[in-house]
Design a protein that fits this description.
eleven-stranded mixed sheet; Nucleoside Triphosphate Pyrophosphohydrolase; alpha+beta
């Protein structure tokens, strides 16, 4: 995986070449990613789905993250990124079902790891139940959901914790119920401005329903 080839860009989003995934994160090149957030309306309550990253992940193990996401390889288009949804969480979605939320720049710095992504962000208005999810064990160990309003208030600084409910697949392959309260420290440390932007864009789409 470290040797995967990714397109790299300058600060103005101009394509400047190709580099290995390892060098992209070591040298801090801008590169493309695909993000898809699942939301689901049930009994007039909007929920947002989050993946629990596997404990075997090199980056941010055991933290909550975007429903499905991944890097776009050098030979892939944004449309090809929809494969991440099927690979990571086992849900069949076609590109045309996704609602584009735009390209969002964000940067995370951690020791010798520099993640500067041009994130092609999408929303999927899901009708799936937890039973529909099949997880890619080496990438994702669980799926949970939270009330979207609670998620919003967490990142707007209006509450300290939110309740998440879902499941995790343990090392023995058994499905374990998750029902707990978590704070921001349980999430991948994307910039708060990134979370706020995502919340705003999702809210705009939810209001259109």
């Amino acid at each position: 995986m470290e040797h995967e080839k990714l397109r790299i860009f300058d600060e103005a989003r101009n394509h400047i070449g190709v580099a290995s995934r390892r060098d992209v994160h070591r040298l801090g090149y801008w590169h493309e990613a695909f993000h898809c957030w699942f939301v689901h309306n049930e009994n007039d309550i909007d929920y947002i789905y989050l993946q629990l990253r596997s404990d075997g992940k090199k980056d941010y193990p055991n933290l909550l993250d975007i429903t499905a996401a991944g890097h776009l390889l050098a030979d892939e288009t944004v449309k090809d990124g929809v494969r991440e949804i099927k690979e990571e969480i086992g849900i069949d979605v076609v590109y045309e079902e996704l609602v584009p939320l735009g390209v969002i720049n964000y940067c995370v710095l951690k020791e010798d790891f520099i993640d500067k992504e041009l994130a092609n962000v999408f929303l999927y208005k899901s009708k799936n139940t937890f039973d529909d999810f099949t997880l890619q064990a080496e990438e994702v160990s669980g799926i949970v959901r939270a009330k979207f309003n609670d998620f919003s208030e967490l990142w707007l600084g209006e509450r300290e914790t939110i309740e998440i409910i879902g499941f995790e697949i343990n090392k023995e392959g058994n499905k374990i119920l998750i029902k707990e309260f978590v704070g921001r420290n349980k999430f991948v440390p994307h910039q708060i401005s990134f979370y706020k932007t995502i919340i705003q864009k999702i809210e705009e789409q939810i209001k259109l329903k």
